[in-house]
Specification:
The complex is a heterodimer of chains A (226) and B (236). With 226 residues, chain A is mostly helical. Chain A has helices spanning 33-42, 47-58, 61-72, 75-91, 102-123, 125-128, 145-151, 155-165, 168-179, 184-191, 199-225, and strands at 3-6, 15-19, 24-27. Chain A folds into 2 domains: 15-123, Rna Polymerase Sigma Factor, Chain: A (Orthogonal Bundle); 134-221, Arc Repressor Mutant, subunit A. Chain A is elongated. Classes of the chains: A mainly alpha (226), B alpha+beta (236).
């Protein structure tokens, strides 16, 4: 999948405006992201408008590239996804109202694009072998963690138990793997986990903690009903 | 294997709770001035909500982080490739990604039939423009209404005649060499043109467009021929 682009290069210090009376020179670098969007909208029909949008997107090349590389794990696929993210940003720029920072807005595009793309990939059978389901992690001394979680009254009870039991990294790993359905490799890269088995170790650790917490919860429940 | 119903409960518990604000709103609240009640509420929520803390941490990682040493080479390569690219023009290959091979095979057959019937006898050259508002009807074809030919100002939308049974229409905007510069989809017989696309229609530049109609099952019901239009030079 390739995308063709054309246009003129935008020098980083392109002269934006010059006031001879005050001798001040405004360069692209002086403009905030949000100001670049405003200038682009004002000059959308002109080469200047193109320079504004190119400068704006240039500021996010590395960030989007990093995000995509962490999720994809290979540079060609990441480059394609990065292009698609900028294409979406360009096509939907009108929906940027300036309520939030541009960085937040483009992050949401990158996040949603990649989660959708990589979620569907993770769901394919070829990718499930490396994934862990909680039923695979049955503690000999305890019942299946997932079945026990399912017996809890509501998702809110499960949420509370997860919040009380897991530390932030375990929670993030669980959210990305089970909630967003990303592969363990992608989760490892995204969170920069440097331990030998990466995200998998955090899933195992989370499951151990949950197993203990569920036993306590079960005991409490039995006490309350008797 | 895990029971999907059980997974759903876990998945739901790992997602945003009812009281979680959208991330953009949470970020704005946290950036409000010190002592602001909105900020205080956002801080209180974040302190107790693992989901929102995780989302914020990932967003900060995106905004602030630079590539790690082991990523730098590949990330720089990707960023370098992006830097060489400017105005965004999706390629024709992308279309198969969006619509699937079967639908495109059907569309390609219809295009070939239409091309055989209309273009080959007329020889090479640009598709001929028609006067404004003058549609051209073809057998099993989508009738394009506007913009067509020389037009006094940039069009606000693409318009065509509705096709019975169609639930989706696709529009392609192209350069005169037929390289696609934009595509859009609509469920009605018109498609508003976004501002960035209008920027690609300076006065005097001839562009081509064509449409196709699709039914519920993804079957192509008809395609238009390729038509040209141009915003008059004196429209500035």
């Amino acid at each position: 999948m390739t995308t063709r682009y054309s246009g003129v290069d935008a020098p980083r210090r392109f002269l934006v405006a010059e006031s001879t009376s005050t001798a001040t020179i405004e360069t692209m670098e002086d403009l905030s992201d949000e100001e670049l969007v405003v200038r682009y909208r004002q000059d959308a029909d002109s080469p200047a408008g193109e320079r504004y949008i190119n400068e704006l997107f240039r500021r996010y090349h590395t960030r989007v590239a990093t995000w995509c590389y962490r999720l994809a794990g290979d540079r060609d696929s990441a480059a394609d996804h990065a292009q698609e993210i900028f294409l979406k940003a360009y096509t939907h720029l009108n929906s940027f109202r300036g309520d939030a920072k541009f960085s937040t807005w483009i992050y949401m595009i990158a996040r949603n694009h990649c989660y959708n793309e990589f979620r569907s990939r993770a769901a394919r059978p070829a990718h499930t072998s490396e994934d862990i389901v909680l039923t695979d992690l049955v503690d000999d001394r305890a019942e299946n963690v997932e079945e026990a979680l399912a017996r809890m009254e509501s998702a809110e009870s499960v949420r509370a138990l997860l919040a009380q039991t897991l530390d932030d990294t375990e929670h993030k790993v669980m959210t990305l793997h089970y909630g967003e359905e990303l592969t363990l490799d992608a989760v490892t890269r995204m969170l920069g986990l440097t331990n030998a088995s990466g995200a998998k170790a955090y899933i195992v650790s989370a499951r151990r903690k949950l197993s203990v917490a569920l036993r306590r919860w079960n005991t409490r429940q039995q006490r309350e009903t008797s | 294997m895990a029971d999907p119903m059980q997974n759903e409960k876990l998945k739901s518990a790992l997602g945003p709770a009812e009281g979680c604000p959208p991330l953009e709103q949470l970020v704005r609240a946290l950036e409000a001035s010190e002592g602001d009640a909105w900020r205080k509420a956002a801080e209180d929520h974040t302190a107790t909500c693992s989901h929102c803390r995780g989302e914020l941490a990932l967003m900060r990682e995106f905004v602030e982080a630079s590539p790690r040493p082991d990523e730098a080479r590949n990330v720089n390569w990707i960023a370098g490739r992006l830097a060489k690219q400017r105005v965004f023009r999706p390629s024709r290959q992308r279309l198969s990604f969006f619509f699937g091979a079967r639908a495109w095979a059907a569309a390609a057959c219809l295009v070939l039939v239409a091309a055989g019937a209309f273009y080959l006898p007329r020889g090479p050259g640009l598709p001929s423009p028609a006067g404004a508002g003058e549609g051209v009807m073809r057998s099993q074809a989508l009738e394009l209404v506007a913009p067509l030919g020389d037009i006094p100002q940039k069009p606000a939308e693409f318009r065509w005649r509705a096709v019975p049974g169609a639930v989706r229409y696709q529009v392609r905007l192209m350069e005169v060499d037929r390289s696609e510069i934009w595509r859009g989809e609509a469920t009605d017989a018109f498609l508003s043109i976004p501002a960035p696309v209008l920027a690609l229609m300076p006065p005097g530049r001839t562009l081509l467009w064509e449409g196709s109609a699709w039914d519920q099952s993804g079957k192509a019901l008809g395609t238009s021929g390729t038509r040209s239009f141009r915003v008059n030079l004196d429209s500035r």
